[in-house]
Input
Amino acid sequence: MALDLANVVRVSVLSALRGLANVNTSALAIITDEAPIPTDFGTFRTYLNADGVAQDFGSNSETFRLAGRVFGQNPNILTGGGFLVVIPRLQSAPVQPAVITGAAPVNLLSLTATDYAINVTEGAGPAENVTIGTIDTTSVATVLSSLNNAAVTAAGLEFTIAGTDIASAVVSIQTIATGAAAALEINTTTTGTNIAPLLNLGGSATGAVAGVERVKDAVLRTTGAVPYFGIVLNEKLADADLTELAALIQTQLKILFVGSNLVADIAGVFTTLLNSGFTQTRCLYYSTAENDALDFAAAYASRGLSVNYDGANTQLTMHLKDIVGLVADPGVTQTVLDSAGNAGVDVLADLGVPKVFTSGANQFFDQVYSRLALRTRLQIAAFNFLATTNTKIPQTEEGMNGLKSTLRTVMTSFVGNGTFAPGTWIGPASFGDPEDFVRNIAEFGFYIFSQPIAEQSQAQRNARSAPLIQIAAKDSGAIHSASIVVLVEA
Output
């Protein structure tokens, strides 16, 4: 009997480990208060054309009308490899507490003071200073325990923390009581060190009575169930509800598109959103009717989210773009245009032909869109690099070079699609070697730098953490206007 060849040659065939796919940045959701026709509709359904929406909601429904605007654009979300998601709001949602979510992640390790406090107003009650004291920053769990001390609970409040990374966590505060009467407002004056701004908490929120689900709660309920990047609505929200929703969206990898036909909203709630820094809520004005404004938002969203970030020269600006199916807004006078420009509100203006007119006061749409897309692609690329190795990435310069090479591939693709471009860095801030910084920006459009492994602290090495990686990139910008001088000599 012949002996096993493994005595001489041993072969192992390894399967590639699975990584994450990139987030679909062209997926658009319509969140609607209309009930679907099928009783087995489920939480959501996805569509590649408007016909299915007509079957599920009826051809006279607002949802179908908006879907028609979405798929009627050229290009539209399908161009970017996207799809439409329709999410019906629950018709009999339970009562909800008032929740204020931090506008951005925070490093909980920085909470080193000993006299933290928060001042809040609940419902119709007076302002109340609530003592929190010292925060145990050993872990996310100990921070949460410190925040939810006896005084906080007695005040009818509860903190929650999203995520397990203590250095980058999103904190929320909510009322223990439920219903619309359980309103919550964070005040600016406290006795002790005010913890609210340190947790990126501010503003006000209201709870909800039982009935049709709030849009905010629909987003929270479905974010993990189906991927979607953009959101449009089939109704105009009240100012307080819109402001609260915008605060939530600012913490998500999402963009909200809202339309209004009320000129007062430009200097009103839209300016409030601008001043609050809610760049991920894109405000649009169209004067003729509420439905026309909602149609404008849906069409604008589909046109804007049409970018395929894997392509070449696919990045866009919404300025001077066409919107299929809508005529120029007759209510956009020069005065309205100036007011909208100051508030960062986009309009469909009559420039001889109907064109979207943007100002960038609340950042330009492409800036917001591309930065969110870049953020998620860098995150997924780094995760996949770490998660798809069958051995380990050594905590050496060689290992760091591999990680940075993965990030460099993402940055190069964003130069290729037109988001970034080589140029001259004119700002005072830089890092790494100054000559390398300037040269890489000029030659490639970006620069990637990490602190040397040899300079890591022992705590970082014990935690098996990579040194901080810093990336600088030169925005390609866009030409939106021009001035021309003609010199004529007789």
User: Anything to note?
Assistant: The chain has a mean pLDDT of 94. The two ends are 107 Å apart (CA to CA). The longest helix spans residues 365-387. The chain has three domains: 28-90+213-366, 99-205, 391-490.
